[in-house]
Amino acid sequence: SLLGEGAYSAVYKVQRLADGETYALKKVKLPSLSDKEKQNALNEIRLLASVRHQNVISYKEAFFDDKTRCLCIVTECADGGDLLQQIQRCQKERTHIPEPDLWRYYIGMCNGLQALHRMRILHRDMKCANIFLSTSPRGLIAKLGDFNVSTVAKRGLCMTQTGTPYYASPEVWRDMPYDGKSDIWSLGCVLYEACALRPPFQAKDMEGLYRRVLRGAYPRIPPGYTQDLSDVLAEMIQVNPRHRPSADELLELPVVAKKAGEMRMLQHSDGASDLLRTIKVPRNAIDLSAYLPLPRYDGGAKRRVHS
Questions:
Q1: What's the mean pLDDT in 77-102?
Q2: Which of 57-61, 116-120, 191-195, 275-279 has the highest mean pLDDT?
Q3: Where does ATP bind (predicted)?
Q4: Which burial class, exposed, middle or buried, applies to 21 when counting CB atoms under 10 A from its CB (0-12, 13-18, 19+)?
Q5: Are the beta carbons of 232 and 253 closer than 8 angstroms?
Q6: Is 280 annotated for ligand binding?
Q7: What is the 3-class SS of 76-104, one letter each residue?
Q8: CA 129, CA 123: separation in Å to the nearest integer?
Q9: CATH number of the domain at 81-263, please?
Q10: Whole-number Cα distances in Å, 225 to 77, 209, 256
Q11: Which residues are catalytic?
């Protein structure tokens, strides 16, 4: 079944015949993509295949489907949908996400970002639609996904402007160099939206949004939430990136460390991974199979999935 659709790709919920398990299959239409976009698609596979962490959507395999001329990326399927869907459900039902759930999601997102940043990977498109929710013995946990515009920060700072405007940091809006602290701002915007059911910065047009983001003032979250949650938001949504904590520092904040301990979410380094080499696509490459990482299913079998 179709889970979502973009300009050049569609995501399906599929079942793998070899193990009967459910996965997500992203089909990227290659003939309609530019060389740069093809490189982005392969980059997403490389990043996914490099990171093994409980708070990052796990890579299973990638293959080229000759019939549809599509590059297919198979990942784990988050059975709880995404954070945006949960926010929309709350808007409809006029309820709010309970605070214990928010802390669980938040600590999971911090853990996931910490794993990426330790590998010098910037997510660059942190938003509620890219935070996937998965069942665990502790309840739903958050997993980072959709690395389509991620990049490896070779020199620590990047210049290109990508990402979603509502979540973009002041330095991205101003075309300044940026680093992992930009993801932290976006993480703050995601947590704020999960609390308030609306982004922290809204305006009628891009110019107005730009001004509001650069000013950095946002409305208080609903009064039903604690001061601790407000304080953590204030740490992340700071206009000066130097004043924002890193993912490591966020997890060391006393209130966050205390919550993580209570929820048994203290980090253990299962995300140790080596970054796979950049996948270079030769011009006019027809079959990309030879350039893709190997399948990574738990059972080790390599049979294809079917939608």
A1: 95
A2: 191-195
A3: 26
A4: middle
A5: yes
A6: no
A7: ECCCCCEHHHHHHHHHHHCCCCCHHHHHH
A8: 13
A9: 1.10.510.10
A10: 31, 26, 15
A11: 125
